[in-house]
User: What shape does this take?
Amino acid sequence: MDVTRILEDLNDAQRTAVTAPPAPLLVIAGAGSGKTRVLTHRAAWLIDVEGVSPQSLLAVTFTNKAAAEMRGRIESLLGMPVNHLWIGTFHGLAHRLLRRHWQEAGLPQNFQIIDSDDQQRLIKRLLKNLELDESRWVPREIQYFINAQKDEGLRPQHIDDDNDPQRRQFIALYKSYQDVCERGGLVDFAELLLRAHELWRDNPELLAHYQARFRHLLVDEFQDTNAIQYAWLRLLAGRDGVPFAVGDDDQSIYRWRGARVEHIYRFQKDFPKASVVKLEQNYRSTATILKAANAVIANNGSRMGKNLWTEGAQGEPIRIYSAYNERDEADFIVGRLRDWSDQGNPRADAAVLYRSNAQSRVLEEALINAGLPYRVYGGLRFFERAEIKDALAYLRLISNRDDDSSFERVINRPTRGVGARSVESMRAYARANSCSMWRAAGAIASDELGGRAASSVLAFMTLIERMARETQGLELHYQVDHAIQASGLIEFFRKEKGERGETKIENLEELVSAAKGFSADPAEEMSALDAFLSHAALEAGEGQADAWEDCVQLMTMHSAKGLEFPLVFLCGLEDGLFPHQRSISDPAGLEEERRLCYVGITRAKKILYVTHAEQRRLHGMDSFSQPSRFIAEIPDELVEEVRPRVHVSRPVHTITRPRGRLSSGISPGAELGIRLGQRVRHGKFGDGVILNCEGQGAHARVEVNFETAGTKWLVLGYANLDLM
Assistant: This one.
């Protein structure tokens, strides 16, 4: 292969990183600077120029989509398949490792992966067995505690209770939870990583084998690694490994789920021979947008430091809109979106980003009223839908009768006469005899359960056994199809009237299609069904369904990471909302909020709007906030205010109104309790927001923006407005 093909279209910094000698290297890749290109070209360079075997490379990224894209690009560069290249997510690679070495890892060969929902159900069942009140011992909090400890590499026996009774109980619950998982052969997501780390840590010969094999480690999104992931990488790298880590400390925004930006700062200490390359040329945004991003992030003290630049256009100024309240803000955004669409631009090229999911409600209402289609990015994913989880539970029971979570999920779904008391009897027997729910059901069905319940339980067990026999030897998609039909799920949802039932049936049918298109790794010693079930568990939480039409994108700023749009709105930039109230007094938290703002700004390619409201109703409460400090950090020469800011306070004394008019003293309508931003209701025009006031007393007029009737001037003395 011609080496120039690998190096063509690379800038100087990218070329330096790609062709670096085989030694530890940290690449600080700014937003839109081509990090994926550098990773894939580095892999191709090592294979084609350095003569490294594809089997000696291990590439880690954070989504299956990114892993597939990386593999495809490498194959395209090399002009040949690289089937033996280990490339995937941390969880995916850990799963692959544990399937190969299940005995050394202390796992049953057919261990099952449980997702977040199944994990929470298991914890709820555990609390019930221990007769603990869920209102005091909240399952989600226990789940968070367990996963957080695993992410730190800690088993129950390693955790200090700090003489705290609640913490002591959490540790005891962690221990009980672990016992249940061990008994049922269940592995949650956090366990995949911890168990894979322990596998290498406790088996020096096995570790030495993989250290010798995987000398070159390519790591994407390095700033997002948590403690156990970094420990796993360091173990594998050992003394002679060559890590090639690509990340951006300015885009580290997942501290709340264990990510540690400190790993970037530690890299050169842990790998003393490491060098650093910075990618600062941006291929996404205008110069104005990049200057704003640089100015904001420069206020963070702890960072590696870089300055994004572009050879592209200067671009339009960043437009700041000061709204009266959240509805005014939403109306403004929708108006600009309508203009964008009317100019012939794709609606999907526009994104509205917000700090909190709760902000989307008002935006959605405004979009619906305007007739603009939209999609909330990050909605319920395919493998997380209830009907899909039901079908997968049946398939898991076919594969492993001792899967308690799956047994409990579908023992009475569709309903078959097995009540909560019968299920509790099975739980009690399983707990007393340290066996699975399946074995408990068989043991007590004829003796302890009532006649109808016993018949129903035995019929269910017979159904599962029959489904297992009838699907044996069938192709995977026929197994899935048979399961959803024989289980009664299709018929069950067919009885659910309306579009909802039809949608669930369509989703189940799509599961068959997913199975038909699934290809198991031939190198893995697993049945096609087990491979598909593992795939489903690993895929849960990833991917988005394609929107059915061209529509505006709504999403949180966290969800927007990795995406880009020609038109972007950053809304709700108010102190207390963004930056979030809980982070304002925490220096580390505030720096992460600023990094999140940096991520939001750099999603915009051409046009960026920043909005804030002086009054906002959120979570059922009205608040009056100052504009976010992040707005003040954008240099004035980069900003254009869409209109002068309007000061609204209680009581209203001085109002700087739109269109440059000024009223001093008592504001129009103040004696009647009217204020700018006030929500009102009119008998004919419906609900609206007061935008402007003029005149005094009974002759005072107000300008109201009605949700359905548009903007109208009304005389207060005759309007009969109801204040809301």
In short: The chain has five domains: 3-101+194-281, 112-184, 297-379+547-641, 382-539, 655-723.
